[in-house]
Amino acid sequence: MTLSDSRSEARTSRLEHFPVPFFAAVMGLSGLTTALHLAGLPLAGLVALAGTVAVFVTLVSIYSLKALRYPGAVAAEWKHPVKLAFFPAFSISMLLIATALAPTSQGLARVIWLIGAASQATLSLAVLSNWIGHRKFQTIHISPAWFIPAVGNVVAPVAGVGLGFPETSWVFFSAGLIFWIVLLVLVMNRLIFHDPLPGRMVPTLAILIAPPAVTFLAWLQLNGGVLDAFARILYGATLVFLGLALTQVGKLRGQPFSLSLWALSFPVAALTLASLRFGTLAASPGHTLAGQVGLTALCLIIAGLLFGTGRAIARGEICVPE
């Protein structure tokens, strides 16, 4: 075998093992884009939006090629108890891109939102059906990543109401809220009464922050931007889960880089957006400052994740057999 043949085989193997959790990166980048715009940095937001769309198109192209050349590998991910939950990250990414794009181009945002909403509904039902009908899943397979398929539905109203789809947004909100409660019980049961999460899954604990934060943002869209009692409860719950997640930060020390670290990005973005919105509606400088601090932390996290991902790709440390 020649050197060129060896390199070609290596590239082929990496395509086969290209992981669907990669789409979590788009969720984090989309959150950053929206946070920059809300913080009054439209130019930075446009740059981030362009980068986000470029990353999304690249990931879709690569994963589509994988699906064509290695359908068995995609089927294996679909049957995987953890990776299965990341398939709707594709549709959620579209909904988040539509949210980030809405201030610039409502027409295009509407098209992307409709495609994303249809994909999200389909993938959510498919994953839930798989969970219900697949008897090999065990309690130890549950992780906060399981929030993504069902609870991710609450992302839809954040842009959907403003784009002219209020009734559809209510349906998505209802689905996400119901399954947040159901899955929260299951996830906490797993975390408290069973073995600790494996090291690479520890970053997914940050996902606990995202459901109440995004539900808060969605509720504000649905109720006309009124900071009522339910909105305050949701924001309060966000802070509670932030505190819980912070108690586990020490477990990240010494861990090698992995794609699961991207699980930190979107929850921090959701927290930042929620804090900025709360600060504006409550005329609270403290909450606005907290949102600005969150945005700074988000920028640092995203920069670190982009650097770590690029270095891991260069070293051939990702897209390899587990």
From TrEMBL:
Q: Please tell me whether the keyword Disulfide bond is annotated for this protein.
A: no
**What Gene3D superfamilies does the database record attribute to this sequence?**
Voltage-dependent anion channel
Molecular function per GO: monoatomic cation efflux transmembrane transporter activity
The membrane topology noted for this protein in its Swiss-Prot or TrEMBL record is: Multi-pass membrane protein
Its Gene Ontology cellular component terms are: plasma membrane
> What are the UniProt keywords, alphabetically?
Membrane, Transmembrane, Transmembrane helix
> Where does this polypeptide localize?
Membrane
The record, for InterPro entries, names: SLAC1/Mae1/Ssu1/TehA (IPR004695), Tellurite_res_ion_channel (IPR052951), Voltage-dep_anion_channel_sf (IPR038665)
Protein name as it appears in the record:
Tellurite resistance protein TehA
Query: What is the protein's species of origin?
Result: Pseudooceanicola algae
